[in-house]
Amino acid sequence: MEVRGSLPKLVHTTLEGYHTAESLAYEEVTFDFGTERKLTHRTKKAGLLGERLAAWNFGRKIIFVTVHSVTTCSDLFAGKDKDGDVAMMVKDFMDYVFIPPLDEVVYGSTLFMLTCGHVVTFEESYTAMKNSIARLRPEYTILFTAPEFMIAAAKMFAVAYSVQVLIQGHALLDIFRDLLNVSLELRMHTDVLIFHISGLVTPKVPFGSRIPALGVALRPSITGYRYSWYHSHRRPWGKSLPMGCSRCGAVRP
């Protein structure tokens, strides 16, 4: 992926003026596990990355996953083999991307899945994604429904998120609609799904050590929300209308 101008880099650039090198970590990881040999190599690299990240006591963890999906079945591309591109079912993809100990990094994080909407269009893949969320337990997960999702449309959202959530400290769910209101291109381009898991215990270093507050463990609960842009004439009830009449072809006023 091209790093310059990407959403993760944009968020990092926004935060740099408010942090020192000791309080802000940025990692870029390119994955390719299209063969057994590549998967074995990735497993070793994941272990080293997990050890490095475990040395940080993160206040917040923001994770972006950028990946293409197959339009006919919503499988996610995982790399290449001798015959070309390799795609995997959503469950397998999420298991391999966040192979232990990286699964512990996801716990309590905010996870942005930057992929086309086929993942949520196909029921089987959508269910697999929700199961992965329930297993990995990020605090927030954001998904998009556009069949051809354009990451550039989310840049204003990313900057507003960085300022209002990561710098000013607002709770994401409390201001999520405000973030969409300043991101006109994004809300006109795609519906946005956000899953929130409440009741997570505070993770401590190392990642595997989690101590419930006051010794009481709350049962985590998952709530999902779907935000759709509404316009009384062009997108009533969040459903897009065609530009012209389906019978006579006249352009809709």
Residue share in helix? 25-40%
- C-alpha geometry: globular
Strand-residue fraction? 15-25%
Low-confidence stretches: none
Give the H and E element order: HHEEEHHEHHEHHHEEEE
Distance between the termini: 41 Å
The number of helical runs is 9
Strand order of the largest sheet: 1-4-5-6-9
What is the rounded Rg?
A: 20 Å
Q: How many E strands?
A: 9
- The class by helix and strand makeup works out as alpha/beta
State the major sheet. 5 strands, mixed
Quote the average pLDDT.
Answer: 87
Polypeptide structure, described:
The protein has 253 residues and is of the alpha/beta class. It is 35% helix and 18% strand. The chain has nine helices and nine strands. It has helices spanning 7-16, 36-54, 90-97, 102-106, 118-121, 123-136, 155-167, 172-181, 184-189, and strands at 62-66, 76-81, 84-88, 110-114, 140-144, 192-198, 202-204, 209-211, 221-227. The strands form three sheets. The chain has a five-stranded mixed β-sheet with strand order 1-4-5-6-9, covered by helices on one side. The longest helix has 19 residues, at 36-54.
